[in-house]
Amino acid sequence: MTTTIDILRNAQTTSSYLTLAPEEFQSLYDISYKFVTSGAAARSLPPANLYNVFELQFFLSIIAGKDTEASAILATLTDRFRQDSHRVGVLRSIYLEATEGPLKALEFVSGRPDTELGTLKRKIVILKSSNQTSHYISELLKLVDNFPSDAESWAELASAYAEAGMYAQSLFALHEVLLLVPLAYNINALIGETSLVYASSLQAASSSHSVAIEERLFEAVKFFLRSVELCEDYVRGWAGVLVTTKRIAAIQKPVGDTSTYKRLYDVARNRLAKIVETQDASESELASARLVLKNY
Description:
Function: Part of the endoplasmic reticulum membrane protein complex (EMC) that enables the energy-independent insertion into endoplasmic reticulum membranes of newly synthesized membrane proteins.
Structural class: mainly alpha
Low-confidence stretches: none
Domain EMC2 TPR-like: 120-183
Subunit structure: Component of the ER membrane protein complex (EMC).
Order of helices and strands: HHHHHHHHHHHHHHHH
Largest sheet: none
Distance between the termini: 53 Å
Main location: endoplasmic reticulum
Keywords: Endoplasmic reticulum, Membrane, Repeat, TPR repeat
């Protein structure tokens, strides 16, 4: 039989409450609110689990627009776990953003120590939502400098650079991610995609083909192939191989030997066709595969 604690633990660990239908969300809110306010949580849970349940109720209150209840939960957590707790600091920044706006939340997190990963990430989220691109990238650089082993931060930096059209810097950040998670096939594919977009930007800025463009295309194929080596039916990877080798084949006077890439084009096309034929992928992936096969 599923207990109240099981229901709340599952909601907290999976963040499933973010995608619940309104009636399901209200049901979870009622269960959590009753468990927290009745004292049952404090009586039955150790401190670490107790914090998680109170944190869940805080998020549910924020989403439901119940600012007074969220404030009460925050006060309880502050009393139990101290004002200087970095987790409490993150929650306070969320509360301030919800009730007083992003500038107030930004002022609060800016006063927290740079050694707190959670509050640094909150600062970056606020800056991103406020469209302060240069400040956003500057804080991301500070974050990866303080926490160089945080792959998520490097990935966020790569995304920020790519959105700003700074593809060389984006690729550098993605390679840092790959150093931390070398078997991440999706990151290999993302490096391939970024290299492909970088090649397109170089082409748009030049009146003629160049070695630099070829190098970016060759690098894209290399990382797309690595992604399908790690996950052999990865549609995104095979689609990348197909698109990029088609681009390479269209080069009028290539600097390097492109015969291998012509063979890879056939391999990628056959692999995607087989995936579509066997329906061996999700609906969205199959739709992507069909689109790529149609256009390339």
